[in-house]
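FAQ

Q: What does a record look like?
A: Structure on top, sequence underneath. For example:
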């Protein structure tokens, strides 16, 4: 068994993410292409890894959980906030026709863009900026995935740019600074947001208008 297959079986399937389409999408994306060359030997390990600029590529299991949480049946578009290395973006692009991704740090966005072009993934639209403001010209989105921890539900973004009956996934901090967070799946039903607790998680902070003012707290990620 190669390291990708072992990652899928031991870290993802064994912990309960079993949706075939999600596993198939993960199987198609070489995670070693999204980490710095000196960390390639750790690319399929069970933890997040630094990708520069103080940011991380998410733990493989967390990427799987978030992908399953926004289960793409019927979804035509997704807004991803926090492109990072582009690994989660690439998996979403295998499942959803149009992927819109926003990263606040241009260096990371350009790196992710390069990797996706090399992998011939062509259904992704990239933007640098504060993702909490969304991407009005392409809204509403059937799905929104936020890959950094918000201080509370970003209600303006979700009410303004998520489709009716759309689904979002967002980590929200349990306390003011640092510490653990809860991953929520949010549905927009009749113009109201309904949230469901998917368990504890740990992400870097979401920085922006509906996020934190500065990136002081967490650096690690996972569950
Ligand atoms: N899922 C990504 C991957 O697979 O590599 C990792 C995402 S990383 C944990 C979170 C990213 O969110 C960081 O790259 C950070 O710069 C970005 N970020 C934080 N606040 C943001 C905001 N308001 N808008 C866009 N990106 C933001």
């Amino acid at each position: 068994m190669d390291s990708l297959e072992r990652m899928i079986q031991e870290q993802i399937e064994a912990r309960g993410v079993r949706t075939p389409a999600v596993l198939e999408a993960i199987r198609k994306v070489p995670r070693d292409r999204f980490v710095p060359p000196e960390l390639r030997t750790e690319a399929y390990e069970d933890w997040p890894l630094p990708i520069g600029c103080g940011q991380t590529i998410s733990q493989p299991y967390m990427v799987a959980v978030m992908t399953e949480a926004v289960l793409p049946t019927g979804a035509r578009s997704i807004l991803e906030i926090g492109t990072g290395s582009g690994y989660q973006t690439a998996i979403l692009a295998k499942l959803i026709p149009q992927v819109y991704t926003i990263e606040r740090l241009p260096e990371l966005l350009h790196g992710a863009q390069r990797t996706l072009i090399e992998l011939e993934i062509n259904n992704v639209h990239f933007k640098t900026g504060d993702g909490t403001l969304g991407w009005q010209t392409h809204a509403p989105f059937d799905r929104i995935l936020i890959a950094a921890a918000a201080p509370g539900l970003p209600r303006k973004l979700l009410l303004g740019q998520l489709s009716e009956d759309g689904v979002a996934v967002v980590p929200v901090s349990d306390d003011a600074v640092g510490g653990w967070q809860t991953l929520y799946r949010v549905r927009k039903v009749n113009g109201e947001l309904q949230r469901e607790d998917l368990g504890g998680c740990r992400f870097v902070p979401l920085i922006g208008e509906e996020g934190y003012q500065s990136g002081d707290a967490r650096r690690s990620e996972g569950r």
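Q: Is there anything notable about this one?
A: The pocket of S-adenosylmethionine is lined by residues 55-58, 63, 81-82, 84-85, 87-88, 102-105, 108, 130-132, 147-148, 203-204, 206-208, 211, 221 (CB under 6 Å).
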